[in-house]
């Protein structure tokens, strides 16, 4: 025979009174609900039945074969549109960068850093 769980064993004595009352109400509700019902024996093992052989062939197939070509064509079209749109937005006629103002540089004391 199992004994009823003691609330003080779970909570201890160092809990504030307000929190202790909240936990006590939750403890009483859990005791009133009782234990979980037993699982029926028919549900202990899953019943998968007969599986078609084609499901076992390729478990990791993402798309049906007839849609793979369409998906690749759509991805290529989106990439092409993005590339052409970026090229068009960034394309400028001229000699390159336009310099609007030049500032003289000053060397600072310290180690010299060479970049390539």
Topology:
Elements: H1 7-11, H2 17-33, H3 53-57, H4 65-90
Quick synopsis:
By secondary structure, this protein is an all-alpha fold. The protein contains four helices and no strands.
Q: How would you characterize this protein structure?
A:
- The mean pLDDT is 78.
- This protein has helices spanning 7-11, 17-33, 53-57, 65-90.
- It contains four helices and no strands.
- The protein is 46% helix and 0% strand.
- The chain is mainly α and 116 residues long.
Descriptive key words:
116 residues, mainly alpha, 4 helices
**Arithmetic mean of pLDDT:** 78
Q: What is the element string, with H for helices and E for strands?
A: HHHH
Structural class: mainly alpha
Give the biggest beta sheet: none
Q: What share of residues are in beta strands?
A: under 5%
Number of strands: 0
Number of helices: 4
Rg computed from alpha carbons, rounded to a whole number of angstroms? 36 Å
Estimate the helix proportion, in percent: 40-55%
Globally, the shape reads: flat
Which residues sit in consecutive blocks of at least 5 with pLDDT less than 50?
none
State the end-to-end CA separation.
82 Å
């Amino acid at each position: 025979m199992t004994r009823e769980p003691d609330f003080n064993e779970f909570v201890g004595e160092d809990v504030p009174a307000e929190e202790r009352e909240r936990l006590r109400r939750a403890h009483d509700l859990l005791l009133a609900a009782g234990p979980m019902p037993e699982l029926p024996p028919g549900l202990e093992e899953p019943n998968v039945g007969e599986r078609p052989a084609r499901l076992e062939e390729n478990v990791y197939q993402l798309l049906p074969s007839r849609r793979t070509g369409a998906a690749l064509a759509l991805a290529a079209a989106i990439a092409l549109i993005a590339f052409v749109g970026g090229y068009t937005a960034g394309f400028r006629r001229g000699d390159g960068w336009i310099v609007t103002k030049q500032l003289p540089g000053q060397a600072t004391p310290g180690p010299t850093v060479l970049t390539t």
